[in-house]
Amino acid sequence: MFINKDELLNALIKKKTYEFNVCTHVSLSVHPSGSKTLLMRYRIDGKKKCLKIGNIELFSNEELNQRIRKAKQELHDGTCPATRARTEIRKNKEGSIRIEALIDYYSKTHVAKLKSADQINALLNRHLIEKIGYVRIAEFNQQILETALANVGQTTQRKVAKLLHAAFNFAISRDLISMTNPMSQKVNNFGRNGRKTKRYLKKTDIELLLENINNVTSNKSIVNAVLLLVATGQRKCEILEMRWDEVDFNNKEIVITAERLKTAHSEDIEKQEDHTIFLSDFAITTLKNQLERTGTKKNVFNDLNVDTFNRDLTKIIKKIEQLKHFTPHDLRRTFFTNNLESGYNVKVLDKILNHKITGVESHYNYAQFIENQKEIMKKWGVYLSHFHKL
């Protein structure tokens, strides 16, 4: 490649950007400031394109010639050199973005608008920014996240994984990054150990919990929530998000509306029935105690946080000697297993827990077992009342 210095001098004298051919497809652009840049102009797919080869003062002739040869070869192979160059630049910029910046962008732009912003940000800060915030997104993989979350519970692991998945998707949708979401297809199974949990409380564990729970916490709402979970066998979200207008003290029942049920789906919400929970005297007394605390509010457990309840429960369990770790969902297994061992019909217990009927049976079985449900709840409540005086 040969560049005439006289032509360069003339371009500078004219005090305007001047461009002249150097070789096929390649021209030199001279800016009044003195900057001299090689450009490659060409057509591909009927469109005019321009690729910046580089400043001749910053690169040697050998480097510039090498870039020109590479671009011409790409053009010969049907690849647009300019598009390829822009992609490389973008990847280099994306590669420098750290997890901390990604989370910060997601938090300020999206999470801040949500009602549960404080809880979400607490999870993001505690488990992502503090542990892997320094990691560049180009270097991130699932193993890094698994190592960072090795000492936290499976539920928390999945929550954090879902938040990180959402953060990547949010940045991709806003064109901040162009990479494939590294958390795709990994969220739902994240943190699982590949086998179903078999944990439940035996009657000796139940008795230990009920006899000591008042002694290890002063938060009566948490106590009442745990007692209701034990007494009814219902899902955590269905109890902790329960409203006072769903509680019927006269008929001793709770009616959870269809849209609040886990078994409700958008496509069949109109067909979904409300779920009625029949209450024992033990459960009724527990609710009346809670009524004194939050009766003026909309929600029964207005002062509890669904997202942090597991952590609060774990603190209580650790204070009770000889009581092994369990989760709120284990109390659901506890209710089912202990009553099944007492000889009650599995189909009645399925109805109490509102298990979804599948297969052919779903087209034929419409039995409600109301009296049977009431009997089970009553006797279970009597058993519990022996170990926890309300």
Q: What would your notes on this structure say?
A:
The chain folds into 3 domains: 5-95, Integrase, DNA-binding domain (Double Stranded RNA Binding Domain, 2-Layer Sandwich), CATH 3.30.160.390; 99-189; 203-386, Orthogonal Bundle (hpI Integrase, Chain A). The radius of gyration is 33 Å and the shape is elongated. It is an alpha+beta fold and 390 residues long. The protein has helices at 5-13, 61-76, 81-95, 99-109, 117-132, 142-148, 154-173, 203-216, 220-232, 236-240, 281-294, 309-319, 328-341, 346-353, 370-385, and strands at 18-23, 26-30, 36-44, 47-55, 247-248, 253-256, 275-278. α5 crosses α7 (154-173), α8 runs antiparallel to α9 and α9 (220-232) packs antiparallel against α11.
Topology:
Layout (H helix, E strand, L loop, with lengths): L4 H9 L4 E6 L2 E5 L5 E9 L2 E9 L5 H16 L4 H15 L3 H11 L7 H16 L9 H7 L5 H20 L29 H14 L3 H13 L3 H5 L6 E2 L4 E4 L18 E4 L2 H14 L14 H11 L8 H14 L4 H8 L16 H16 L5
Antiparallel strand pairs: 1-2, 2-3, 3-4, 5-6, 6-7
Helix pairs in contact: 4-5, 4-7, 5-7, 8-9, 9-11, 9-13, 13-14
